[in-house]
Amino acid sequence: MRADAESSEATGDTAPALRCDGLVKRFGRQAALDGVSLSVRPGEFVALLGPNGAGKTTLFQILTGLFVADAGRAEVMGADMREHPARALARLGIVFQQPAIDLDLSVRDNLLFHADLHGLARRQSLPRIAALLAHFGLAERERAPVRALSGGNRRKVELARALLHEPALLLMDEATVGLDPASRAQIVDEARRLAAEQSTAVLWATHLVQEIAACDRVVVLHRGTVRFDGTPAMLCAATTQHDLERAFLALTASEASP
C-alpha cells in the first residue's frame, strides 16, 4: 500500500540527501530487503516504522557500509555507497541501536577520537565539542568516563558524536530503546529540531508508534518491503483507522502469513 500524493519521491526541487532505489539483501534464501526504495530530503524528518525483523537494521547496515547490497543503489548526497563509500559516509551520522561508544574513555576523549577519524583539525573539533556538550547539558561531565553516565546521557554523547562532523544525513536506528520516557522524548525532540532548524535530513527507524506522530513522512517496512510511504494522517486514512498505532497494526497484520 503506497500513498501516491506523498511518496518517497517527495515533491519539491531539493535533491534528496538519501536516495535508495531497489535495495535487495538476502541471507541464504531469506530476503531481508526485497526491492526497498525511499528517499529523505534535507530538513525532512522521516520515520521508518516496522516491527522487529522488518529489515530496518539491515537497511541501516547497508547505509553505513557494514553490509553491501546484493542489488539496487543507495546514495548519500549524490555519492553512491558502492562506488564512493568514503564520500557517502563522510556526509552521514549514525546512532546505532546497540551502544557503540567506549565506556572507559571520557566523554571528551570519545568525541575527540571520532573527530580524528573524520580528519577534523583540533581548531575545528574542540569548539564543536564544547558547543555540543553545552547544548546537551554535559559540559560538567566531559572528563567523566562514559560508564559513569546514565543511559539517557550516554545516548546524548552518541548523538553528539554523530553530529560532530556536521552530517547532512542523520540515521537513528532504534536509538531510544531502553531509555526512560523523559530521555526518549529529549532525543526525539533533538532530532526534530535538527531537521527544522539545520535542514538535517533525518531517517528515524523505530517500532514505537508514539515516536512518529510529528514526523513529516512515515515509511512502513514489513518483511523487507515498503508497504506504505506518506504522512501519518495518510496512513490513518489508508487503513481507515483513527490513530497511528491501530493503523500500523492494521497494515502489518494484513500482510501476515496465514
TrEMBL record:
Keywords: ATP-binding, Cell inner membrane, Cell membrane, Membrane, Nodulation, Nucleotide-binding, Transport
The UniProt record lists the keyword Transport: yes
Family annotation (NCBIfam families): PQQ_ABC_ATP (TIGR03864)
A GO MF term: ATP binding
Domain called ABC transporter: residue spans: 18-248
InterPro entries per UniProt: AAA+_ATPase, ABC_transporter-like_ATP-bd, ABC_transporter-like_CS, ABC_transporter_ATP-binding, ABC_transprt_ATP-bd_su_PQQ, P-loop_NTPase
Superkingdom of the source species: Bacteria
Pfam families per record: ABC_tran
Protein name per Swiss-Prot or TrEMBL: ATP-binding cassette domain-containing protein
Keyword Membrane: yes
Sequence similarity: Belongs to the ABC transporter superfamily.
Gene3D superfamilies attached to this UniProt entry: P-loop containing nucleotide triphosphate hydrolases (3.40.50.300)
